[in-house]
Amino acid sequence: MSSGIALIVGLGNPGADYEHTRHNAGAWFVLNLAQSIHTTLHFENKFKGLHSSLTLHGHPVHLLIPTTFMNLSGQAVNSVAKFYKIAPENILVAHDDLDLAVGDIRLKFDGGHGGHNGLRDMIDHLQTNKFHRLRIGIGHPGNSHEVTNYVLKPPHRHEREEIETAITSAEKIIPDLLDGKFQKAMQDLHTREK
Is residue 1 part of a domain? Predict the structure, then answer.
């Protein structure tokens, strides 16, 4: 088993109504990555998600976007992980993060779910929080009562551009993540020029 990332997951909600909403920032990351490496994600019923299996920078890797709703995304991740015998510590989950400013992006290992229903369900299904997260900042509405409405709306155009820029810069650390060079990947990502 490789010590690096073997499964890259992008969290979001399925369907056209949610496609461009802030909550789908994780799915945007995987879609962007798939596009840049010229691979296509295909729906696989057994995985409850859009999936691609490929070799990237000399490593076998799987891309996954669950097609369940966010609060059930652990089912899809667990299905792929079990089928391909991928340990939780070899999984990277890209997700939106209210606690980071728009366009900020951070790499993290383990920790709680921070109220994120997708992470909560993943922790429940994998029975551990020992997986890597790519936290994509979407900002906070400023009032906790407005959070649900906020994450289920599209970002303003300039915010979307900042998120896209952050996603593109995060793609540059993928080779290090596949190699298991997590400290280097984290340092490179967190010290990048804004």
Answer: no
Outline where the chain has alpha helix (H).
25-36, 73-83, 117-126, 147-151, 157-171, 174-179, 182-190
Sequential DSSP letters for 137-187: E----SSGGGHHHHHTSPPPHHHHHHHHHHHHHHHTTHHHHHHT-HHHHHH
Q: Which residue has the tokens 């366009």?
A: 103
Judge whether 2 lies within some domain.
Answer: no
- List per-block mean pLDDT (blocks of 10 residues) for the chain, which spans 194 residues: 86 95 97 95 96 94 96 96 97 96 94 90 96 96 92 96 95 95 93 60
Active-site option among 23, 51, 62, 132: 23
CATH number at residue 117: 3.40.50.1470
Q: Is this model's pTM higher than 0.85 or not? A: yes
| 96 is a domain residue | yes
Distance CA 79, CA 100 (A): 30
Q: Reading across the β-sheet that carries 42-44, which strands appear in turn?
A: 42-44, 49-56, 59-66, 7-10, 91-97, 132-137, 105-109
Q: Is 23 a catalytic residue?
A: yes
Domain-located, residue 164: yes
Counted domains in the chain: 1
Can you say how many angstroms the Cα of residue 6 is from the centroid of all Cα atoms in its chain?
13
Q: What is the span of the domain harbouring residue 183? A: 7-190
